[in-house]
Amino acid sequence: MIQRIPALAVDVPAVRPSRSLWRDAWRRVIANRPAVVSLVLVLLLIATALLANFLAPYPFAQQDLDQTDLGPSAAHLLGTDQLGRDLLSRLLYGSRISLAVALVDVLIVVVIGLPLGLFAGFLGGRIDTIIMRTVDILLAFPNLLLIIVVITYLRAVLDLPQSGFMAVVGGLDNITGGLLGVFIALGLVSWLTVARLVRGQVLSLKEMQFVEAARMVGASSGRIMLRHLLPNTLAPVIVAATFGIPGAIATEAGLSFLGLGVRPPLPSWGILIAEGVRSMRAFPHELIVPASALAITLICFSFLGDGLRDALDPKLKVD
Amino acid sequence: MTTYILRRVLWMIPSLLIVFTITFLLVHATPGGPWDESEKPLPEAVKQNLNKQYHLDDPLWKQYTDYLVNALHGDFGPSYRFVERSVTDIVQQTLPVSAQLGALAILFAVIVGIPLGALAAVKRNTWIDFTASLITVAGIASPPFVRISLLIVVFSLALPWLPSGGWEGIWDTRVILPTVALGMGPAALLARYTRSSLLETFTNDYMRTAQAKGLSPRAVVMYHAMKNALIPVVTVAGVTLANVITGSFFIERIYGVPGIGRMFIDSVTGRDYPLLLGLVLLFALLISVVNLIVDLSYALIDPRIRYQ
Question: How confident is the model over B34-39, as a mean pLDDT?
Fold first, then answer.
């Protein structure tokens, strides 16, 4: 029988409240000024993307051929493009595409990269060899090179009349204005680094005593992976996923810039920049506006990644 | 060491072969060619003749082995779009331009990136460090097509200092903007690595010894810290090359440089699949070789590293 010990009369000095890793990390992020500024800007970007249809003064594809290539004015805050479309509206709607890419990139990391790394590290053997050899080969060459080859193929195939499953894919690609093709090509490469990272983590974690202890009390492999290993790999995965976002956004913009990504008139920032380059000699604002928007977005996500890394993985921080 | 080199070289073969096979299959599964895009569709007989001329009516395995054998002899087949030229011709003409531009860009990256990183490390947590880190993040995060187009707007349109496009060899002012735009990414990467590597080196005991025996801070950093700090920086060489190659796709196109990067994009948009295949192989080979050299030089620079 356990008996409750009566409370001592002496005053116990106040114990420091226990802090979890996450609360600790949050404090460190808040203390990091560039990360906070970036976080605010990213949240702002998410808000404008969600509210684009309320904020945009014009539909993004509405042309007004009497009002082409205007500079900034009260009617068009950021001016108009060569077809008289309102640049601000196009920029706002374009942020939706960039953020969709960011979201899908993170999803791919979580749905493909994380489990594959977990399996490779925990199960080992042939599964490990197959997964990691694939990762090695795909990582040996520049992402963009592979993506361009794959999307060239996808574009040519999806544009043809198809049947069965490919017809569904082609139809979806059509409805999304070519975004699905970009997602597929991104999906091929964006899970690689995270899979490798998680595998490395799991390899060292699975030798630790808490895993042994879990096994001892009869936990199944699935349970060990899900309840014991997964939570411990989460911090580096969050950091890696955040670092992957600017790359994914830049890749989509680059593909659209080359005419391999989203189809006009969808206002991907890459398309806006391509159109801006065409008219930069006479109307440089048409280039400066989308190019700065893209650059600022990418820099914000990078600073946010830096801040999260310093906060979640203090060992990695040098100073 | 010799066995290590041999093993690495031998490993390159299957990995290149896999890249080649995947690209070959993708390219051959990609429907059509430049003659499918013309406004007036070609008669069926002409298409058949074209297929015959390019051996596209052979079975796939024969095309595969033929291509492989020819490629080993330096013949990468004809280009679809430039009817009179072979892929090898095009590479011979455009590669030197890109190699010159790329070499200049890497030089720029080394000259700017390493001192910038060193400065940031020495002046850690001052405004110099913060400015340097803003520059590096901007350099790493901004894609090449944003960099080159903003550079053109600022330095040849707003301020009429430099030409806004073209290529006249490396002794012409036209080389400056594409070099800077191409080198900025790698420079930022080098700066970041140099900074963190130097900061780590500073914690070593021999640094305290150097300071204790009265060396000037300059000498401590230059002669004692830098040497060791630069070892890990060498590893980014492969990434740098990959950066320069993919950056050239955009920069050569926007600035009108007749190099291999622009050719690559033209081959993609113009459905010139043999050219695309040849160039992918070339890039893959280049990167594999550089990665190998990096790993080998690592052992030369740092005697503590031994390969078995």
Answer: 60
